[in-house]
Design a protein that fits this description.
Layout: H1 2-38, H2 42-45, H3 47-53, H4 74-85, H5 92-101, H6 104-129, E1 132-133, E2 139-140, H7 143-149, H8 158-196, H9 199-202, E3 205-206, E4 209-210, H10 211-229, H11 232-260, H12 265-274, H13 291-306, H14 314-317, H15 325-352, E5 357-358, E6 363-364, H16 373-382, H17 384-416, H18 421-441, H19 446-468, H20 470-485, H21 499-510
Antiparallel strand pairs: 1-2, 3-4, 5-6
């Protein structure tokens, strides 16, 4: 068995390197640059507009109130998407990027996020434009639909679009069990066990299974099961309340720590830019880690955190009650901004000002591990309370990620099973909930590593779809800018690929119910 796992690990490492380093990162950054250009740098040129329509409109009742059956509000869609994106990647992922790639990895995380804003924007625009209603009257959208009905409508691309849509759905469903379930639950379990249970409890076993992880797993399974089986409305209702609280609480805690370590802040920012374009120094005879490693870790962990380019969050954004594709696209811009430029940056500053990173060489001090680096940073200042704070933060971050990914996986399964998709999605949810216990008791990181590979496999067909449909994104964006920003009244709105939905939405938009 050990030989099988070793071989499987080696194979996965080789595939992961090929998917992410050889193809993925170039395609990812390239797509972000392309979509930034075709939208005329929308994230900068219309920064005031998208900020006003997203964060600035949080207290606007229109962004909270649902207007139709089978949908969620724009704010709920954002919170559910953030629930899935703000997870362990914002804590453990950022510290891992710094440990493996040095402080310069943070700079490349920002670069990936800057261009990722427009990738996420484009995904959401296409998701709304190509969505449709399922048999239960709920909106269904995502990369599989714009691959099938967008790319698939190009001459000679019908079968290519369908094949890529199926591949994306298969990889999304498989990834949901790893990165969206067992990997997150495993991190929750390890941190809760370390923070709240003495070693005498941690060693207790029943039938060879550790009691504490099993108990935590069962508790999380029941809690998640009640919410997940209740469907998207329950998930969105929980996300709407938990996500703002957990994000603000973590930011305040991290900000307090950074303020206490304020003297190290200039050196921290200096190290980020210093090591972004140079080689991180290492001890001994080793020559160092090439800039390629810095860029790879920063971009890869950035995507792992904000998921821009994976095509995952578009599946919940497509459930929004919004009629204008660009309006939901702007929530996608804010999603990446909040996840990476705010939450991930706060984690990076906590780590870099903690004293556990030598800011002159970019090296991690001996005996420090990336998995516990953030917790160590907090406990070093706040004692056991700091460790408790991080354990609870990871609980909330990771648990809501599980909820969000359960929706992604169910939508992928729904697409794959066609006419019986809604039934298959319900079966999937039951299996997904049961797998939570396995995530709590597993000790191997292989499931996490394999799911990282499936993330890459999801990304490739999705980005092929986004790139091939960039003319459509450009037309929809220009159409919105002409009508909503330049106030041209003689321009017909572009709202859906489906003539029936287009007509219905036009009438609603004219009435101001968009």
């Amino acid at each position: 068995m050990s030989d099988f796992l070793t071989n499987l690990t080696n194979i996965n490492d080789a595939v992961n390197t090929f998917v992410w380093v050889k193809i993925g990162l170039f395609l990812l950054i390239g797509t972000g640059i392309l979509m930034t250009i075709v939208t005329k740098f929308f994230q900068i040129t219309h920064a005031g507009h998208w900020w006003k329509k997203t964060c600035g409109g949080v207290f606007d009742k229109k962004s909270h109130n649902k207007k139709e059956k089978g949908s969620v509000s724009q704010f709920q869609a954002l919170c559910t998407a953030l629930a899935a994106t703000i997870g362990t990647g914002n804590i453990a992922g950022v510290s891992a990027a710094i440990c493996l790639g040095g402080p310069g990895a943070v700079f490349w995380m920002w670069v990936a996020a800057f261009f990722g804003m427009m990738t996420n924007y484009s995904e959401n625009v296409l998701g709304i434009f190509y969505r449709r209603k399922n048999k239960e009257g709920e909106w269904s959208g995502g990369a599989m639909y714009y691959l099938q009905d967008g790319l698939g409508k190009y001459k000679g691309c019908k079968h290519i679009g369908k094949i890529l849509a199926v591949l994306f759905s298969v990889f999304a469903a498989l990834a949901s069990f790893g990165i969206g379930n067992m990997g997150q639950i495993n991190k929750i379990t390890l941190n809760l066990e370390s923070a709240f249970f003495p070693e005498s409890f941690q060693s207790m076993t029943v039938l060879g299974i550790k009691v504490v992880p099993l108990a935590i797993g069962l508790f999380l399974m029941v809690g998640a099961g009640v919410i997940i089986i209740g469907g998207l409305k329950w998930i969105a209702a929980v996300a709407e309340k938990v996500v703002p609280f957990m994000a603000i609480a973590y930011i305040i805690g991290a900000l307090a720590l950074v303020i206490l370590n304020f003297a190290s802040l200039p050196a921290a920012f200096g190290a980020i830019f210093k090591f972004a374009f140079g080689i991180k120094a290492v001890a001994g005879a080793a020559a160092g880690i090439a800039i390629k490693q810095v860029i790879t870790q920063g971009c890869k962990r950035g995507v792992f955190s904000n998921e821009a380019g994976l095509g995952s969050s578009v599946m919940v954004h497509s459930n929004s009650d919004v009629k204008e594709p660009v309006k939901q696209g702007m929530w996608g811009i804010f999603e990446v901004f909040a996840d990476t430029f705010i939450v991930c940056t706060m984690t990076a500053l906590v780590v870099l000002t903690s004293g556990y990173i030598d800011l002159e060489t970019g090296l991690v001090l001996d005996g420090v591990e990336d998995a516990t680096l953030v917790a160590k940073s907090f406990s070093n200042v706040f004692g056991i309370g700091g460790e408790w704070f991080i354990a609870i933060a990871i609980l909330l971050f990771a648990f809501t990620t599980v909820l969000g990914w359960s929706h992604y996986g169910s939508k992928a399964v729904e697409y794959l099973f066609g006419s019986v998709g809604t039934i298959a999605a319900k079966v999937y949810k039951v299996i997904f909930v049961l797998m939570i216990v396995l995530g709590a008791i597993m000790e191997s990181s292989l499931a996490w590593d394999i799911s990282d590979t499936f993330n890459g496999f999801m990304m490739i067909p999705n980005l092929i779809g986004v790139v091939s449909l960039c003319p459509m994104v450009m037309k929809i964006t220009d159409n919105y800018v002409a009508r909503r920003i330049k106030n041209k009244t003689d321009v017909k709105p572009m709202l859906s690929y489906d003539e029936k939905i287009q007509k219905e939405n036009e009438e609603l938009v004219e009435k101001g119910a968009e």
